[in-house]
Specification:
This protein has helices at 14-22, 45-48, 91-100, 147-160, 172-176, and strands at residues 2-9, 26-39, 51-59, 62-70, 81-88, 104-118, 121-128, 132-141, 167-168. The chain has an eight-stranded antiparallel β-barrel. It has one domain (2-176): Hypothetical Protein Pfu-838710-001, CATH 2.40.320.10. Helix content is 24%, strand content 47%.
Length: 178
């Protein structure tokens, strides 16, 4: 699957939330996320622009845990990349497997995220510890969907909400400077 994603650094969320209300975007949920990133023993993900993480999301009495692999970015204006994600049951055991295979823990990025749905887009408002506040708009492309058209639609959506600058291609891991 290809995830088309554009991120922008923003100053505040109040005006964005008003714009989302005008657009009739639906708030899905609020999450606290802890993303633990690893580097591979056979290549440096910082050089290849890949990412491997374990994401933990508290969900009531349980903890939702996901492994995500993100490939290198495939264009110059967004964070579009191949992405694979699977749900796993135990973050500690998953971390132990990674480390037993030679993967090295790099850092953990902590964020609070509000998630909205608008048409085929997911819009998130992120407060990232040690990095700031950001808005992301993303869409997963199905086979046959046009990448360029989707990217243009994302930038048009940003423009509708009054955001025309502050776009950021760096990952939250890179932005935290950890």
């Amino acid at each position: 699957m290809i995830e088309v994603e554009v991120k922008a650094r923003v100053n505040e969320f109040d005006s964005i939330k008003k714009s989302l209300l005008v657009l009739n975007a639906k708030k899905i949920r609020t999450e606290h996320q802890e993303d633990t990133y690893f580097n591979a023993p056979h290549r440096d993900f910082a050089v290849t622009d890949e990412a491997l993480r374990i994401r933990k999301i508290p969900n009531g009495d349980k903890l939702d845990v996901f492994i995500t692999y993100k490939g290198a970015k495939i264009d110059k204006s967004s964070k579009t990349r191949q992405e694979f994600e699977v749900s796993v049951g135990d973050a500690t055991k998953t971390k132990n497997i990674f480390e037993s295979l030679g993967f090295k823990l790099v850092a953990t990025v902590v964020k609070d995220r509000e998630i909205y749905h608008f048409n085929d887009f997911i819009i998130t408002l992120d407060t990232v510890k040690k990095a700031g506040i950001f808005m992301e708009i993303e869409k997963d492309l199905e086979d046959g969907e046009d990448f360029d058209e989707t990217l243009q639609d994302i930038f048009k959506l940003y423009e509708k909400m009054g955001i025309t600058e502050g776009f950021e291609r760096k990952s939250y891991l890179e932005l935290t400077g950890i």
